[in-house]
Fold this sequence. Notes:
Helix content: 10-25%
Strand content: 25-35%
Structural class: alpha+beta
Number of domains: 1
Order of helices and strands: EHHEEEEH
Shape: globular
Distance between the termini: 11 Å
Largest sheet: 5 strands, antiparallel
Number of helices: 3
Amino acid sequence: xxxxxxxxxxxxxxxxxxxxxxxxxxxxxxxxxxxxxxxxxxxxxxxxxxxxxxxxxxxxxxxxxxxxxxxxxxxxxxxxxxxxxxxxxxxxxxxxxxxxxxx
Length: 103
């Protein structure tokens, strides 16, 4: 399994994530845009999760700089949301975590 960072949010993001039962309001474009407009210190990074069968899912996370260090948070404290990975039901979450750590 591997993470492929996307240059920007895909135009069909909301449609693509509908297939995942873990999807919440917090994964949707409107919410992500709301948070970044109210918290200009945050950016959203988008990833496609790939495995030997193709696309295994998607992952988005907030990125901020603290003390000149770039860090991810899903969520950052104070944002009050959950942004876990969206994976196919047969995808191995341990492999996702290993891919995330390698990335």
